[in-house]
């Protein structure tokens, strides 16, 4: 039986029909041809699309399933392309390759992406990155179609890490960590320097210093700066404020950074400050002490917290008074202090074994408004959270990433390498928070996450999840 025009109008374009006399229906199919080596001629391959029964066309279930499978594969391929292109394009847009294009054997984007993946497993020295490249090259080739087919030497890795401008790498780093930052109300940003002791030389006995702004609530280093040999942290802190988004945050620092210029810059950028005061600011230090001794001042607020652990009883007491109790001379110098607060933090420790008691008083100036709700609790939190930069950042970098053992003379290499450490730690911190939120249990340790991120596919998934 031949198919008339009414039947042909029912079938999809590009299909053919065949009448089945026994079942009284038209079978609709698509034909494709291929060359058969065995038969030494072309052969036809038919795929059933559907049937026409009593003037009604119906798709075959097998055809619909195959089309859906093809669509899913196409979407997966498109997603993979997008996932792969995002990090590579970010490297290309932020970092300038100064090499001659005709002589480039290892694209800069792939070297830095391999370094990022490797850093998530806690390995950031040149030999480790080169070994990671060699051991995982088949996996990297499956992810990146044009990934180099040859291994890279550790000397080349070192040269390329030295080649990049630290400011460009800082910009690249900022783009990477921006999605990790949640703008908490009054997030505490701690400022402190850290010595890389293995980098010491005749002029820097303790090693090169790196000044860091660390978001203690998000667990992310916002930025860093290498301290010059003839400078100290004070020179750089105020300048770094302008390049960071600190609006709505409380910036804490030790007495070294209790400088009028630094405080003014923070207020100008929309941040508050909570700065330690010691005898490097003698007049201010003794005047704050007198304010808390003055029995006529009745506006002082106090809160106290007792903690047990590590074989001791620790009592922390925070006393907060209005900033305008200080002399007018101080209020003129320190912007925001006239409406802010002064803080006395007393820590008393009782050794449970020996019964020995030790006590320490510390003093701070703070621009948080005295009339804020729960001002004493805010001040206590600011003072306490400052230690996050030592406990959660510097200690982990030295213990888990062996940063303290980084031996190098080149400033660019040191800055870029320490940024790799901080990026990897930031990603791991976010993974830990996600795990705790999802399970309600304590997250795996940093070391266990390093082992998990050793696989390039998992590292890529972490990177692309950050980039959105």
Question: Which descriptors apply to this entry?
Answer:
about 475 residues, 4-stranded antiparallel β-sheet, elongated
How would you concisely characterize the structure shown here?
The protein is an alpha+beta fold. It has helices at residues 5-8, 61-94, 108-120, 126-135, 137-143, 154-163, 166-177, 233-241, 260-268, 282-293, 328-333, 375-385, 388-399, 411-439, 446-452, 456-467, and strands at 16-20, 25-36, 41-53, 56-59, 188-196, 208-215, 220-226, 250-253, 272-277, 301-309, 312-322, 341-351, 357-366.
Description of the molecule:
The protein is α+β, with helices and mostly antiparallel strands and 468 residues long. It is 42% helix and 23% strand. It has helices at 5-8, 61-94, 108-120, 126-135, 137-143, 154-163, 166-177, 233-241, 260-268, 282-293, 328-333, 375-385, 388-399, 411-439, 446-452, 456-467, and strands at residues 16-20, 25-36, 41-53, 56-59, 188-196, 208-215, 220-226, 250-253, 272-277, 301-309, 312-322, 341-351, 357-366. The strands form two sheets. A nine-stranded mixed sheet has the order 7-6-5-8-9-13-12-11-10, with helices on both faces. A four-stranded antiparallel sheet has the order 1-2-3-4. Strand 8, helix 9 (260-268) and strand 9 (272-277) form a beta-alpha-beta unit. Helix 3 (108-120) packs across helix 14 (411-439) and helix 7 runs parallel beside helix 14. The longest helix has 34 residues, at 61-94. The radius of gyration is 32 Å and the shape is elongated.
């Amino acid at each position: 039986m031949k198919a008339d025009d009414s039947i042909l109008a029912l079938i999809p374009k590009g299909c053919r029909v065949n009448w089945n006399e026994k079942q009284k229906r038209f079978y609709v199919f698509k034909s494709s041809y291929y060359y058969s080596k065995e038969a030494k001629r072309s052969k036809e391959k038919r795929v059933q699309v559907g049937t026409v029964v009593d003037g009604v066309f119906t798709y075959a279930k097998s055809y619909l399933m195959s089309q859906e499978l093809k669509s899913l594969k196409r979407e997966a391929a498109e997603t993979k392309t997008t996932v792969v292109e995002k990090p590579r394009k970010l490297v290309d847009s932020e970092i300038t390759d100064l090499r001659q294009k005709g002589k480039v054997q290892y694209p800069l984007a792939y070297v830095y992406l391999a370094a990022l993946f490797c850093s998530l497993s806690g390995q950031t020295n040149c030999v480790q990155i080169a070994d990671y490249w060699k051991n995982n090259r088949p996996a990297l080739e499956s992810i990146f179609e044009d990934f180099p087919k040859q291994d890279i030497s550790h000397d080349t890795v070192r040269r390329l890490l030295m080649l990049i401008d630290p400011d460009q790498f800082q910009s690249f780093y900022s783009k990477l960590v921006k999605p990790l930052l949640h703008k908490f109300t009054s997030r505490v940003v701690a400022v402190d320097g850290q010595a890389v002791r293995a980098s010491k030389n005749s002029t820097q006995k303790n090693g090169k210093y790196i000044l860091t702004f660390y978001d203690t609530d998000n667990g992310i280093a916002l930025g860093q700066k290498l301290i010059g040999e003839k400078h100290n942290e004070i020179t750089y802190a105020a300048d770094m404020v302008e390049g960071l988004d600190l609006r709505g945050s409380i910036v804490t620092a030790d007495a070294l950074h209790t400088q009028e210029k630094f405080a003014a810059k923070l207020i100008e950028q929309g941040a508050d400050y909570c700065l330690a005061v010691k005898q490097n600011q003698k007049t201010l230090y003794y005047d704050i002490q007198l304010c808390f001794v003055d029995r006529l001042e009745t506006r002082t607020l106090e809160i106290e917290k007792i903690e047990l652990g590590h074989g001791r009883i620790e009592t922390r007491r925070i006393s907060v008074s209005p900033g305008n109790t200080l002399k007018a001379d101080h209020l003129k110098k320190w912007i925001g202090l006239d409406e802010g607060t002064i803080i006395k933090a007393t820590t008393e420790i009782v050794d449970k074994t020996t019964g020995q008691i030790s006590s320490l008083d510390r003093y701070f100036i703070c621009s948080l408004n005295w009339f804020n709700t729960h001002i004493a609790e805010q001040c206590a939190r600011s003072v306490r959270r400052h230690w996050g930069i030592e406990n959660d950042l510097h200690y982990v970098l030295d213990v888990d990433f062996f940063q303290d053992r980084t031996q190098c003379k080149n400033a660019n290499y040191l800055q870029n390498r320490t940024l790799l450490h901080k990026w990897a730690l930031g990603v791991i911190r976010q993974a830990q928070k996600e795990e705790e939120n999802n399970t309600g249990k304590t997250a795996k340790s940093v070391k266990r996450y390093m082992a998990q991120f050793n696989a390039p596919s998992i590292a890529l998934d972490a990177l692309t999840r950050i980039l959105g």
